[in-house]
Amino acid sequence: MKYDIFISYSRKDIEVATKICAVLNEYKKFYDFKYFFDISEIGSSAAYLKKIATAIDSSRAVLFVASKDSCKSEFCSKELLFADKRGVRIHQYRIDNSDVPLDLDILLGTHQYREMSTTPIECEVQEVLSDVLGYDVLPLAELKSSNQVVDSCDAEKVDSDDVATASAADDTTSDKLSKGESKNDDGVIGRLLAAFRGLFAFCFKAIKTIAVVLGVVFVFICFDVICDDEADDTDMEADGKIDPNAAAKDGLSNNEEYVLFEDLKKDEQQPSAEESAQDASAVYHVIESGDTFSLLAVKYETTKAKIEELNPGVDPRKIHLGQKIRVK
């Protein structure tokens, strides 16, 4: 059987211990948990020690009723040492101002503690339950007023018989749980809601991170496409397919500019039918490296002025390779 709280105390502090159990029984009307409280005489048999060790090992926390008697108790010291070794949290509830032995003080120094002089028993139980269940447990007064629960045993007057009855009720509840007859309560629902909230927060952060990464990738892709387009335009200009000055002057788009320039090249390379009909004896020269109108005039036995007259739309200073020039 698993427990949420193991109560460690000295037999001389039975009165305070039973008051703690009474408050725990009141809380059990609103929350689902189990606690271990042994009201029998401290024994030394192997079966009894095994029962104590098993209860501590299966508990989430130990509530140690610290007093001058329990701090001197060898059995209480063994319980606390075993709990610390098994990783079980220890809550100290100091009911007097006695000094804690050095070896026990070193052990308990890493765990939480509260004093009875400043923390009532009901508040102590509330704090321990909140730590064990993993969420804030409401005060008993608020629970009773909201649910109109009829008071049962008084925490100040509970006796050993009441505690024994509560222990028997614990066994009955555990049997029901083992058979699957118990229902989900506020404690289970609270833990599930907390788990879902944590999962939702994690998913939201993950989606936000993915969105940022996709945005950065999209910007880089757009930038790369723009750079590629500019590089293609530069290559076409270098190959002589696009004249950027002409586009600026005429206000043409890239596609229109390309078509127009191709038509001009065809017009320059091929004389029209009308021109052919007018002068069948015309002579043309394709510009090569180093050609000028003056050199062409000498080569074809004519004059520079005549060549300029035959090519009115050509600037002698801006001829280029492959350009077709009429020389006669």
SSE map:
Blueprint (H helix, E strand, L loop, with lengths): L2 E6 L5 H14 L7 E2 L9 H12 L1 E8 L1 H5 L1 H12 L3 E6 L7 H7 L3 E4 L5 H13 L6 H8 L12 H19 L7 H53 L5 H7 L3 H16 L3 H6 L5 E3 L6 H7 L4 H7 L13 E3 L2
Parallel strand pairs: 1-2, 1-3, 3-4, 4-5
Antiparallel strand pairs: 6-7
Helix pairs in contact: 1-8, 13-14
Explain the overall architecture.
With 328 residues, the protein is an alpha/beta fold. It has four domains: 3-182, Toll/interleukin-1 receptor homology (TIR) domain (Rossmann fold, 3-Layer(aba) Sandwich), CATH 3.40.50.10140; 184-239; 243-270, no CATH class; 279-328, Membrane-bound Lytic Murein Transglycosylase D, Chain A (Roll). Helices cover 57% and strands 10% of the residues. It has helices at 14-27, 46-57, 68-72, 74-85, 102-108, 121-133, 140-147, 160-178, 186-238, 244-250, 254-269, 273-278, 293-299, 304-310, and strands at residues 3-8, 35-36, 59-66, 89-94, 112-115, 284-286, 324-326. It has a five-stranded parallel sheet, with helices on both faces. It is rod-shaped. The protein starts with a strand and ends with a strand.
Task: Summarize the model shown.
The chain is an alpha/beta fold and 328 residues long. 57% of the residues lie in helices and 10% in strands.
